[in-house]
Amino acid sequence: MQPGAWTQRGSEHAEAGLPLEEARRRILAELAPVSGSERVPLATSLGRVLAEDVHAAVSVPPHDNAAMDGYAVRSADLPAEGAAELHLAGRVLAGERWESELSPGSCLRIMTGAPLPPGADAVVVQERAEAVDAAHVRLPGGVAPGENVRGAGDDLAAGAVALGAGCRLRPQEVGVIGSVGRAEVTVHRRPLVVFLATGDELCSPGEPLAPGQIYDSNRPLVVAALRRLGVDVQDRGVVGDDPATLEAILHEVGGYADAVITTGGVSVGEADHVKAALDAVGDVALWRIALRPGRPLAFGWVGQAAFFGLPGNPVSAAVSLYKLVQPGLRRLMGERGDLTPMRIPAWTAEPLRKRPGRAEFQRGILEHGPDGVARVTSTGSQSSGVLTSLVHANCLIYLEPDRGHVAAGETVYVQPLEGVQL
Known about the structure:
alpha/beta, Molybdenum Cofactor Biosythetic Enzyme, Chain A, six-stranded mixed sheet
């Protein structure tokens, strides 16, 4: 993967900030899947991204088979109305095959998944059958050809593309690959993502706090999110507010990583040294995003690595990670298609405060109301420093940039947090 030219350094959107959707579009336009792939066993492929099309070597299912326990019949042997008595020729179980042609006036006891015998074209479910004696059964009429039958190739025809390259493998995709008989698949290699937190005030968990320090929550949060996403993570720990040290580390990791992520230091304070270090070793733009929480974001290239500079406040870092970094990393991983998270409507059970001007993601609790319709409530304080607001939340409430205060009972759109693939 080679860095693209990055020239968007102007003051566009300086006041209102760059719209979230435009920022995401620019990031995705710059990124391409990492080079390199590997062959992995199907059993370990969950969460990986296909680097090849998977074709069906056989039809799925490979033969017409019973969709229900019952009796395989020739539909022409049964009347349009009433019932008929048929000779019971035998029984076939799933995994067996009845080789001989089903004779006119005969039926066959059949179990779910068993191949239909030659000549049969329908299955009558066992609940509608009436035993006459050991060799005969009475079955109702009005049975159409194909009733309760899964046809050969109903799921996939032999030679068809079962899954396309660029597909992230969830359990259902893993099952489809198994259904066509594949024991291995070719997937994109995992991007190597280097993470480092910046700030003299940060103390790593487990260490004693010095005066004026706080424990670093961004580092465990971001590293855990990256591991859950499925990239390879190199955690470089906390880097203090020393421009020379930061510049040296960025120069080093930009030579081998696929992406570099930092938290803190992308604002305009005296100790916000990330931007100066990036100017020295990279080609990076600092954006003001029309996003709350979030706003400051750096994006571009450091050496061969895509660079993402997240804000320091923990909720701002998390939301920026969800909305802007994660789609970019998924593109690096090889995923294709629309990477925009799903939004679903819900009504608000309480008023929500908001100022127009920026897209806002408030932390919410989504649940079913008494009428069964989805409703959402706030987790309380929406301060970007209150990380527990994300702990209590099961969704993000999306409020459009031009929207103001929301009254109880109004409709909003929410994004379930578990629908965001972290």
